[in-house]
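Let's sit down with a protein and look at its sequence and fold side by side. Go ahead whenever you are ready, and we will take it from there.
>
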Amino acid sequence: MKELKFLKENIRRQLIKEYLIQEIGDAGFGGVDIQRTPQNTIVMLRVERPGLVIGRRGSKIKNMEATLEKKFSLTSPLIKVEGTEEPGLNAQIMAQKLARSIEKGWHFRRAGHSILKRIMDSGARGGQVRMGGKLTGERSRTVKYTSGKVISSGYPSESIEKGFAVAMTKPGIIGITVKILRKNVKLPDDIQVRKVNFGEVTGIGGNEGKIDPQDEQ
């Protein structure tokens, strides 16, 4: 029964995410966090342009809060909006932008390389764009563009930020996945070279660790 409860909750969270993307997609949806408190449910939105979400006198937020309470049964939802300082390092925002570009008629290859360039120009250590669907012709296929370092397995892969979006085109649906390794992430194989004075070696107090010049002769 616990597994079924978790499954239903995850499905509801995904439906809430899809609803928010539909409502505030033009604002640059960058992710959502839902936290429950004894009094209400806090919905934290990360967006590129907060002003488009708030609306005049907060009217848009009030309408969304009413929908979240009525349609998704959230207890007294309270929406908070947080701006994204570096949209180029937010995988979800980049995935949404790529999807919108393809829907507007951009060639998938040009759009993919453009988004990847923006990610790397923002200072990311690595980025990857993956698109699958009817890109050209009747047969579905998948393409992947990678720049820098992107880790797919092991403990360091937890540092990879992922974003997903869907582009609705006339031939069919194109699924888009964007992965970003942010610039401030330290990996196990990162090596820092320090300059050490040749005449001194790390020791414990006194003359320990110091090299006598006469010993070198």
Summary: The helical segments are 2-24, 50-54, 59-71, 91-103, 108-121, 213-216. Residues 2-24 form the longest helix (23 residues). Residues 2-83 form a domain with the GMP Synthetase; Chain A, domain 3 fold (CATH 3.30.300.20). The chain has a mean pLDDT of 84.
